[in-house]
Amino acid sequence: MLKKIKDTLAIETHDPERFDKAIRDDIDFKGRKLWILVFAVLTACIGLNIDTKAVVIGAMLISPIMGPINGLGYGLAICDSALIRSSAANFGIAVFITMLVSTIYFLLSPEKATTTEIMNRTDPNFYHALIGITGGIVGILAKSRKEDNNVVPGVAIATALLPPLCSMGFGIATGHLNVARDSLLMFLLYVLCIAGASAVTSRVIGLGGK
């Protein structure tokens, strides 16, 4: 009975090499992936601007920003300094592009009101940390599966990384520096919790070596 329970709860890593390749392939921001991010940012900004949750969720679904964060966590787990540097550099590119596009959008937008969707990204708390931790765990577990799955898009929605950055762009463009500050804090909270949880989970399920 105990063996059956143990087998049921065990987490198998079917193909560590496939996982490693999937993580590394998902890090770079160039070409098509860069343009996907640009249009995901524009979609998120429109959703925040017109205060429509469905549009914001759509932007989170197509955003590829989780890749470098998973890479950073995995790099920490396997102590791969080159992977950590590459992940950090590409993450910096993604953040810069998001900030630039969102700031330009809100500078040009005739609607300058601080909407509910924007304000929802300005109150980082304990629950957001929990969301980041669970998102980091599930993201690694999903990528370690042999078969394709629809978990990763769900993680992108749950962790909501893109909207806080776009809200920060709104704050910078409109002079609402308190909105920019608090949105940045929420974003950093998510990133730290996701990367930390990704690193720990990678080690626990054996992807970080024995």
Description:
By secondary structure, the protein is mainly α. The chain has eleven helices and no strands. The protein has helices at residues 2-9, 16-25, 31-49, 53-62, 66-78, 81-108, 116-119, 126-143, 151-159, 162-174, 177-204. Helix 3 packs across helix 10 and helix 8 (126-143) runs antiparallel to helix 9. The longest helix has 28 residues, at 81-108. The chain is globular and about 50 Å long. The two termini are 28 Å apart. Mean pLDDT is 84; it is low at 1-9.
Summarize the structure.
This protein is 76% helix and 0% strand. The protein is mainly alpha-helical.
SSE arrangement:
Elements lengths: L1 H8 L6 H10 L5 H19 L3 H10 L3 H13 L2 H28 L7 H4 L6 H18 L7 H9 L2 H13 L2 H28 L6
Helix pairs in contact: 3-4, 3-6, 3-10, 4-9, 5-6, 5-11, 6-10, 8-9, 8-11, 10-11
Overall 3D shape: globular
- What's the overall average pLDDT, rounded? 84
Helix % is: over 70%
Low-confidence stretches: 1-9
Count of helical stretches: 11
Strand-residue fraction? under 5%
Query: Secondary-structure element order, as H and E?
Result: HHHHHHHHHHH
Describe the biggest sheet? none
Q: Count the beta strands.
A: 0
Radius of gyration: 18 Å
Straight-line N-to-C gap: 28 Å
- Alpha-beta classification: mainly alpha
